[in-house]
Task: inverse folding
């Protein structure tokens, strides 16, 4: 931190203001409004503000804002909205909202790297820690459910990946190839 000449305020150095890129894979919405917010934030990070989304969807900006404010987007527009945002938070939330489903990405059968496996281990460790705190105090029920769901999703992904290991799929999407 650098001190300003009057020494009453601090000016952050450029190194301290750099933020880590958000990890979208571990993000899961807990409500429909949060799902829409996450989609809009993901689109903004990809340099697609609401005006661009409205133009791509062929609707007026005020219509898009009304849908987002009321969380009442027509179902035939949700898929289009998510495609332009580059995220599937709304569809995922609608699938898991009743609490009896787990949604996973369809694995391609490629061999995981060390980071993938450490992410799985971390998910189980986090779930176990939150579960211990929940059983000890009875608090953090939502956190326990979220952590367990995340760990189960990671495990289900790797289970499906193992079944496809002998016949992996070809990577046609440039984003998957990287």
Result:
């Amino acid at each position: 931190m650098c001190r300003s000449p009057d020494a009453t305020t601090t000016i952050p150095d450029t190194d301290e203001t750099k933020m880590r890129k958000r990890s979208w894979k571990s993000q899961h919405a807990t409500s429909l409004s949060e799902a829409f917010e996450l989609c809009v934030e993901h689109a903004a990070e990809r340099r697609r503000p609401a005006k661009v989304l409205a133009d791509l969807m062929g609707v007026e900006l005020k219509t898009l804002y009304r849908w987002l404010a009321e969380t009442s987007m027509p179902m035939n527009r949700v898929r289009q909205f998510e495609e332009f945002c580059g995220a599937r938070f709304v569809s995922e939330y609608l699938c898991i909202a009743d609490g009896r489903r787990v949604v996973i990405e369809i694995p391609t059968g490629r061999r995981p790297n060390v980071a993938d496996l450490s992410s799985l281990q971390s998910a189980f460790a986090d779930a176990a820690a939150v579960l211990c705190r929940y059983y000890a105090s009875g608090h953090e029920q939502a956190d326990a459910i979220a952590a367990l769901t995340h760990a189960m999703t990671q495990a289900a992904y790797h289970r499906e990946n193992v079944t496809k290991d002998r016949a992996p799929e070809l990577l046609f999407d440039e984003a998957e190839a990287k």
Remarks:
- The first strand starts at residue 2 and ends at 3.
- Residues 32-96 form one domain.
- Strands lie at 2-3, 10-11.
